[in-house]
Design a protein that fits this description.
Length: 338
């Protein structure tokens, strides 16, 4: 490749059509063999137990049907579990990383199983205008859920980072908009509401099959409608993406940030934040607006106590002097009204 072409390639585009994290490699990305090393350690480790039934209390969804009125103030966010939210903005219903099945796994009979049923089912949903997909890991992208959504909401527009169109079209999605980091799309919903959707950087990676590591991009999202601005963090390690985002975007009203899946640090730090790092990310992202903790209490993916993230997040939050009334950690199925 000519030198000028190399220079023109953005930092997160690697050679051979794959993607990479463009920031200094601190903490380092896992080396080949680290996954095996972690799996071996796990077999021998005494991991904290799965939550007892009832340890994860449930909330009652308070959905607005079909949509929040166009002239309404505020927004509603309902947690279906893990990274799946129904975000209701005036005139616009948005679903994030839809995983409503029983397992985060390629198999129906093995792999991480839900601690408690999803807080929303496909049949409970009001009309969906847009779906935001952050990346292809099984706890964020679930084939049966995608098929059922595509069938029930054929007009929904699927916003993805680069590299997802063929996969989604094969599962029935007809409107797919792929964006690179920093690119924005304007979407007119059926209600007439205008949404601004922008792909934002995150420190993570992708892989679903044997040979597809980093062939699809990963990202965070901003969705804006009727002057309400929501940041959806997807999955990310702590990195300069958050300050870069704050420099490029006006302040957010609501920020959905991952607070779980962080142990052991020697392996997870490159791709997942601790609650302390998530609280710092909120500060980096502008330090204002409602923060909603997600990506915990749903599947066992890593080695920490699955019930630990909320208390650590609350401690880190007050340790940074942030207003406790700005932090929300909803129950499965609970609706946060803002
Ligand atoms: Zn992931
Ligand atoms: Zn994840």
């Amino acid at each position: 490749m000519a030198e000028s072409e190399t220079e023109a390639r953005p930092g997160h585009h690697a050679a051979g059509g794959r993607f990479r994290n463009p920031w200094p490699d601190i903490p380092p990305e896992p080396a080949p063999g680290d996954l095996l090393k972690w799996s071996w350690q796990r077999l021998r480790a005494d991991l904290p137990p799965d939550p007892a039934p009832g340890a994860l209390p449930r909330g009652e969804p308070a959905l607005i049907r079909p949509r929040l009125e166009a002239g309404a103030q505020g927004c509603r966010l309902t947690w279906a579990g893990h990274a799946t939210f129904l975000i209701q903005l005036p005139g616009l219903n948005v679903l994030t990383d839809p995983v409503l099945g029983d397992r985060a796994s390629p198999l129906t009979w093995a792999g991480p199983r839900r601690f408690t049923p999803p807080g929303l089912r496909v049949e409970d949903l009001p009309p969906i205008d847009a779906v935001l997909l952050s990346h292809d890991h099984y706890d964020h992208l679930d084939r049966p859920t995608v098929r059922r959504l595509a069938e029930r909401f054929p007009d929904a527009c699927w916003f993805t980072p680069l590299g997802y169109r063929p996969w989604l079209e094969k599962r029935g999605a007809t409107r797919v908009v792929e964006l690179d980091w920093w690119q924005e799309a304007i979407h007119e919903a059926e209600s007439g509401a205008i949404a601004g959707v922008r792909a934002l950087p995150a420190r993570h990676w992708t892989k679903r099959g044997l040979l597809d590591a980093r062939k699809r991009l990963w990202c965070a999202w901003r969705v804006e409608a009727a002057g309400r601005r929501v940041y959806f963090g997807g999955d990310s390690g702590y990195c300069p993406a958050f300050t870069e985002t704050a420099e490029a975007e006006p302040p957010f009203d609501v920020l959905l940030l991952p607070i779980g899946a962080y142990e052991p640090r020697w392996f997870m730090a490159a791709a997942h934040m601790t609650p302390e790092e998530a609280a710092q990310a909120y500060v980096d992202l502008g330090g204002r607006g409602a923060c909603i903790g997600m990506h915990w209490g749903t599947f066992r993916l890593t080695d920490e106590d699955p019930l630990e993230p909320p208390s650590r997040m609350r401690r880190a939050w007050s340790g940074l002097g942030l207003d406790p009334s700005d932090l929300y950690i909803p129950r499965h199925g609970e609706t946060v009204s803002l």
